[in-house]
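The freezer alarm interrupted the setup, so I double-checked each line after restarting. Inputs confirmed:
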Amino acid sequence: MTPTTAARRWQLGSAAAGCVALLAVLGLAGWALGRPEPSAGKGLAALSAPAADPPTPSAAADPGPAPTPSVRATARDASPAAASSEVAPAPTRLRIPDLDVDARVRPVGVEPDGAMVIPAAPTSVGWYRFGPAPADPEGNTVIAGHVATREDGPGALAALANAEVGMRVEVVDADGTKHRYEVTGREAVRKRALPVETIFARNGRPLLVLITCGGEYIPELRSHEDNVVVTATPVG
Amino acid sequence: MRRVIAASAVAAAAAAPLLFITPASAADDASVVVVHGVPDLTVDVYGSADDSYSAEEALLEDFEPGTVTDPVALPGGTYNLAVFAAGDDPAGDPAIELNDVEVPAGANISVVAHLDDSGNPVLTPFVNDMSPTAAGEGRLVVRHTAAAPAVDILAGGDAVFSGLTNPNEEKADLAAGTVSAAVALAGTTDPVIGPADVTISEGVATVVYAYGSAEDQTLDLAVQTIDGLHSAPSGVPSGTADLAADTTPVALTALALIAAGAAAAMGLRARRVGA
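Predicted 3D structure, all chains:
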């Protein structure tokens, strides 16, 4: 073997390795570009600020100089049985076809510490039953699910981090009604800074708010640093 | 036709400033509910800023026992209230009268027409506690407005409030749900009213009035609800484990470094062998 052929061989090897390195760097760049942005659309701004409580019915448009109660009240039955009011049907199913999300929805309340209950099974998600339901004329329907649990792995809403503006969301009620929504925003928020008053608003436009976890996982707390919040507005 | 349009445009322009003013003043109004707890008496209720009552000052007419009004907004101030038997001339003597009722701006008040502990009809104003309830809870308020001695309030058979007397109240914030409530004479567990299922809705104050007369066996319960006291949950703890980490960047970075290192090493070797 002449020195020149050996040199040529090493040169070829070097070029091949260089190509591999280049491809790897290109792949890395592709991965970085393909990642979901930290937020999409209007993010949390898509949530309206909680509207002021509707003004109590006031018949007296002009109170005049002296306070005169020129108002007429209407009376209704005050028996204990008459006091219970009708409630909108609970949502039972959540679908986001673009993200392959199809989860059972269960009504949930609050933990003893005041946090929203999240169903333990990562395949089902929780609807905050004290807040509005999709059929209610006002306020946010809040549905949340684990991103993953130690016991069962990835959760039904793990794909929320990839939600993009315009994606269709469907929520089915206990009475079979389908409510259709379109994603208007996604944002990762520090858990401690989660604007709960805005998210759980019971007044204002009827919106759908989907929540899971994201960001750095802190093993000591068995918890993620962020909440991923996706907002969607009703369509058709 | 054109003249009509022009005229209504002027009217709309004239009305517009009023529309903008109304919500601002409404925010300072007091919210007042009237509760009727005098058995066997249908009444008209009047409110006045002075000592005389006129037909225009009727708050409500043909008000029946065991009913409550929807909230009415009143400008803050001091009022005189009077209850007349339905259809009676408000210029005459009222059946019940209460003077100098303070209605502070922004307050939430329940005015109850009821019997005092010796059976005389009276008007009692209660100021409602509008402080927020914790997420998942509602407020139960019990008011003794019956011609009856001190009572205990039983929930599920156990006394939760003891020794409540007319015209006083007890209250507690409870987990949302249904409470089987009954009223017994203080120190006893034999109900004189109920048991009745009372719904405690989340973020709502459920005000239960025991009214009527023990002697006449007309004791009953009336329920008023005040909503909008809710609080949001403190957070959304949605994740107890890390997601399966995306290993793509680590693998590609390692590959790029190794390949680049190999390319450099082989390039050097080629130069040395070639020289």
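Quick read of the result. Chain A has a mean pLDDT of 81.
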